[in-house]
Design brief:
Elements lengths: L1 E7 L20 H16 L6 E8 L9 E9 L2 E8 L2 E10 L4
Antiparallel strand pairs: 1-3, 2-5, 3-4, 4-5
Length: 102
């Protein structure tokens, strides 16, 4: 099983903050998931532009500028399990399966 950990950076001036939510911004779940998939794909050399999302749970809000990191496991067969943390607080968890393109 392959495992890894990497920082995740979401710019504090990301355009999604303007509408999510004005005066009390949080990182939209879709942004968190997209950035996580991109980071995992870059580290593993996997093309995750097409993947099946088996499950994702957003456990705690993330504010602009919060330090984040991802821990992921690849048990085989294209499966990837991940957790996203802000310091030691788990903010999201999920599992996906990479799909072959073509």
């Amino acid at each position: 099983m392959t495992t890894g950990r990497t920082p995740l950076a979401i710019a504090p001036d990301h355009p999604a903050f303007a509408g999510h939510f004005p005066g009390n911004p949080i990182v939209p779940g879709v942004v968190l998931l997209d950035e996580a998939l991109h980071a995992i794909g870059m580290l593993t050399g996997s093309d995750l532009s097409a993947c099946r999302i088996s499950a994702v749970k957003f456990l705690s809000p993330v504010r602009p500028g919060e330090p984040l990191h991802i821990h992921y496991e690849m048990p085989g067969g294209g499966a990837i399990r991940f957790d996203i943390f802000s310091n030691e607080r788990k903010v999201a968890t999920g599992s996906i399966r990479a799909l072959e393109i073509g």
